[in-house]
Amino acid sequence: MLCVSPTTPGPCAARRPHRPSCTATTCIGSPRRRWRLARFQDSAAAAPPAGRLTRPPPPPPPSSSQPLPVPAPRTTAERLGSLREMRRVWWVCGLGYWVQGFRCFPWLALNFHLTRGLGLTPAALQLVQNAGNLPLVAKPLFGVLSDAVYVGRAHRLPYISIGALLQLMAWGTLAVIPVTGDTFPTQMACILIGNLGASVTEVVSDAVVTEFSRTQKAGVLQSYAFIILAAGSLLGNLSGGYVLLRTQEPKTMFSAFSILLGLQLALSLSTKETLPSSHRNWNICHVRTSLSDNLRKQFSNLRTAISEEQIFYPLMWIMTSFAVVPILSGTMFCFQTQYLKLDPSVIGLSKVVGQVMVLSLTVLYNKYLKKIPLRRLVAGVQTMYALAVLSDLVLVKQVNLMLGIPNEIHVLCFSALAEAIAQFKVLPFSVLLSSQCPPGCEGSLFAFFTSGLVFSAIVSGVFGVGLSSLIGVSGGDYTSFPLCILLQSLAALVPLGWISFLPEKWTADDKILKPR
Q1: CATH of 81-273+294-499, one of 1.20.1250.20, 2.40.50.320, 2.40.240.20, 1.20.1260.10
Q2: Please, which residues have CB within 8 angstroms of residue 233's CB and are 6 or more apart in sequence?
């Protein structure tokens, strides 16, 4: 084949074989090369004259059928900065869990404030406690909003800031208003607003933990969150009883907690949100769809996730296991403070012991218990809970005094045992839902989960008020109180009747739960 080049060969052409140059080369004898030459000539003829600039065509508008543009790879400095911001987001989330546990600090003062300052009866105190939890039932709405509605380009940290601000307003108001019966509606409104802010913060913190847990070993981050929560509760009860005993002034504790909420608000406002799915969700939710369509889609995704049987049946079991057991916390608090005349420090220290139990159980679960199948583990925990309730019966019947154990020692060691076991029972279900939660539905699903637990607690509290009123337990007559505790222990065994709702062989190390 003969190749003719328009360029003149150099002096080295005689000493080496001819190689085609990078310019246009006419090749004779090959149809394919003749076609390439014609294509080159056509493109050269269509090219603009020299010195003339042309405007590139505008990019086509994004559509649902076209993929989103792939971002350019980040530099090492950008990756390190993103990692630091992500760690700071985790610090904000951890502080949220710690403050959530530390809420027992002002609530201990609030219980004394309502009973001694306003003179509420045990039944009225328990009704106020349960009515104050009503905003927590709206958690699914907050979860859907945090999943679907962005504030700027963030959809987690702004809601933490909003929740901290609402709590700051509520507890700050309680710290300044007078303690009279005329201000009770205002105090009740503050309780509702404070719990509303707490519910928003809890929902978003659970969603952040679920997002981070996708890149970690199963159950590790949930265990850490429980440890942080228990540590906050431990310090809150320990310091709450001491401060209340020293000052006898609940407003001091309200003011101190307001300062802590101000610090949480400042940290959340100064932190840039950097989550694994933030930018991806922003592009999907705001480039392609409108706000109403996104909300509608999020509610549809939540309904679809809940309808999955591997999520639906465990949810039904954990909710009903709390709802069928009557809670007598308000009556027991009045019995300990009014009948037994126990100091606030003793009650606070008993809560501390309970949180130490939660910490110990959480560490034990992370090490050993998560390898036990869920159905067997939960059945054992529920049985232990029913037996722990009977420790209150020993106190009410004063059997501990017959054994030479003072009331203070018994309350310290056993008063919060049942509450600690009930709190720990939620951890395996949190790990289960984290492994089964669809991507993009973290806030919605965990908000539904926690709101269902709150609703079950409200039903249980109303059930307990009705039971104590029916049997005849009042502020001055506790003769029928042992019967209430006995019925409560028997009711704790009832959920074992539908324990088959839980998967038989699933453990925390399993990523996928097979359908029933």
Answers
A1: 1.20.1250.20
A2: 101, 102, 104, 351, 354, 355, 358
